[in-house]
Amino acid sequence: MNSDKFRMSPAGSKVTAAGVRHVMLTYHYLDIGDIDGMPP
């Protein structure tokens, strides 16, 4: 099997920024005690 056909391209800067923002928001909601991340 030729694995060269299945190589994935590296994530772009927009994808990386979105992932970082997601993690930051997750920790923010955990810090304020909002487990599901929904507004009250």
Please describe what this structure looks like.
- With 40 residues, this protein is mainly alpha-helical.
- It is built from one helix and no strands.
- The protein has one helix spanning 13-31.
- The longest helix is centred in the middle third of the chain and has 19 residues, at 13-31.
- The N and C termini lie far apart (53 Å).
- The mean pLDDT is 78.
Labels describing this entry:
elongated; 40 residues; mainly alpha
Fold topology:
Blueprint: H1 13-31
- Helix coverage percent of residues? 40-55%
Mean pLDDT: 78
List unreliable stretches of 5+ residues.
Answer: none
Question: SSE string, helix = H, strand = E?
Answer: H
**Rg calc:** 17 Å
Shape: elongated
- Quote the distance from N terminus to C terminus: 53 Å
What's the short story on this structure?
With 40 residues, this protein is mainly α. The chain is 48% helix and 0% strand.
